Description:
Layout: E1 14-15, E2 26-28, E3 33-36, H1 47-54, E4 59-62, H2 66-72, E5 82-85, H3 104-118, H4 120-135, E6 140-143, H5 149-161, H6 166-174, H7 180-190, H8 206-220, H9 223-230, H10 235-246, E7 247-249, E8 257-261, H11 267-283, H12 296-305, E9 307-313, E10 316-324, H13 328-331, E11 338-346, H14 355-369, E12 374-380, H15 384-392, E13 396-404, E14 412-420
Parallel strand pairs: 3-6, 4-5, 4-6, 11-12
Antiparallel strand pairs: 1-3, 2-7, 8-9, 9-10, 10-11, 12-14, 13-14
Helix pairs in contact: 3-8, 4-10, 5-6, 6-8, 6-11, 11-12
Amino acid sequence: MDRHIPFASLHNFRDLGGYRTADGGHRVRPGRLFRSDSLGQLGPGTPDWDRFLSLGIRTVLDLRHPWEADQRGRVPADDSFTYHNLSIEHRPYNQAAQTPDVDPGPYLAERYMEVAEDGTKEIRRALELVAQAAESDEPLVFHCASGKDRTGQLAALVLGLLDIPEPAIIEDFTLTELATPALLADWRTRNGGRTPTWPGFARAPERVMRLYLESFRARYGSPEAYVSQTLGLNAKALSETLRRHLLEPRPTTWPALTYRRATPADAPTLVRLRDTAALWQLARGITQWQPGEKDEAHFRQVMRDGEVWLAYAGNHVAGAWELWWTDPAAWGPRPPDAGYIHRLMTVPHTAPPGAGRMLLAEAESHITTKARPYARLDCLSSNPRLRTYYESAGYTVVGEQPAKDGGSGSPYAVTLLEKRLG
């Protein structure tokens, strides 16, 4: 489920594998390209160090300033990999000290454009090393301090050259949001318990990368144009090298989905799955969910009042859903004639094609076992795309609830859909 690889000392170490190309026919090979926060936090002789070495990484690109590496430490030396310090940022700035009125979107997008303009020598060398590692079939990791800004820029450029569509590039950037609490906690520890004055510190809202990509396109045209005209590399040859060695055909066979009922111990997994799904939506301009809206207590309460189910593809979480037996907030008082499906979630890079329909069908089968003839659900009235999806799965619009109170204190309009079972 999770792109983050768990470490005790690292919070933002991720595999870029699994992102699909624009035509959907290929995906980035897993285990070949990694991004991270500062590897200076690793120490030999620890489980984290053993896990890092087990990934087979042969090249480490440290995108920080040399003084950052000196003050905060660099990855410990080891014969298994080479280390390169390529400071792509030439105009340092202090994010933590920004004032609350600074809007993260335009502020960070402007800083990123400075890096694209100033760091051409280092970015060129970084791309050459990425291509060399790809040709040698050797894993590579690049990182900065938090694994968000400089790392996010290089990731966006490489993914763009691999023909990964812009929404997925934005999504990849926003996944730092899952690490934000831990990154903030580390900052406070290093700074005597203080809190950054800037609320945007360690945050990765989708608008930042969206604005940056818009500015980048306006100035340079495309990743290929930037590489050829600004970096002075052969963009066609570079792209072909990266695509030939870092992409693989999208799987044509998938493990059959299996299901199990969630227990209270699964609540952290469900929160992370739901927050990841929210970031996926936001990267694609869908504002139905926001990260952090549902905590562990929410899922445990649903387990007490109804059911929560997890879907697996092999050993990987592929999705989940909630099953309620009453839903007065949306449907009002009703006889016990339906099950109400909520928070249907799938994981794009681990779930097989059509997983959403499979999860719906499985949820409907559980409703049928309760001798209830209807499956019901609702979706935001402002999300016609989702309404169409449910209609194509056999659901019929039966009404509107103009002021559903979902517990947030801000009522919203939903479309009510129903399916006769059996």
